[in-house]
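Incident log, structure service

09:12 report received: a user says their structure output differs between two submissions of the same chain.
09:20 pulled the input from the user's history:
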Amino acid sequence: MIGLDSEHYQKSEKITKSDKFLANTFLKILPKWTTPNQLTIFRFLTIPFIILLLVSEQYVLGLFLFFISAFSDALDGALARTQNKITDWGKLFDPLADKMLISSVAVILIVKYIGTFVAFGIILVELLLIIVAYYKKRFKNIVVQAHTSGKIKMILQSLGIGLLFLYALFPGYYFLVIVAEYILYVAIVFALISLLVYKSI
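09:34 re-ran on a clean worker, output below:
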């Protein structure tokens, strides 16, 4: 396994248009010493604080921190690809951080505003993805990488949960819950595609 500060980076994946956009904008703001793995660790560290804010119903701060945390996922991916800093550690723990972030918020917001069925579906598929990734790494020494379907799934999940945050702030606009529910259903579909077709995360 490649350590957090290892310089033995692997060959970069295909750089997307969004990667180029982030490289020319937000990545320029980051300190030069910032690594993709540090951003992943940051995402892990934000999770308990987001949970605490949601439980105490401090939705404004919760939404802000959730947005920053979810956005760090796009930043670390773009940083890794554009600067050729992809590591085995990042391939394994970056999606794990995403899953923990989404699942923790799903337990609280989705159960509260939509129902246990959708929350259970998201958490179950995410758990299966984690198990598959761990099994392949542990027993086959294969690092399961994110596919386009997995990235779309993360975007949809973040969007759906973001709408639930907005409803928590503006409870009079119930259409936000309806839109969020359909978006999360589509996210589950992409998660299943990622699991069953591409076996990716």
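09:41 both user submissions now match this output. Likely a transient worker issue. Closing.
09:42 reviewer note: The CA atoms of residues 49 and 62 lie 8 Å apart. The chain has one domain: 17-196.
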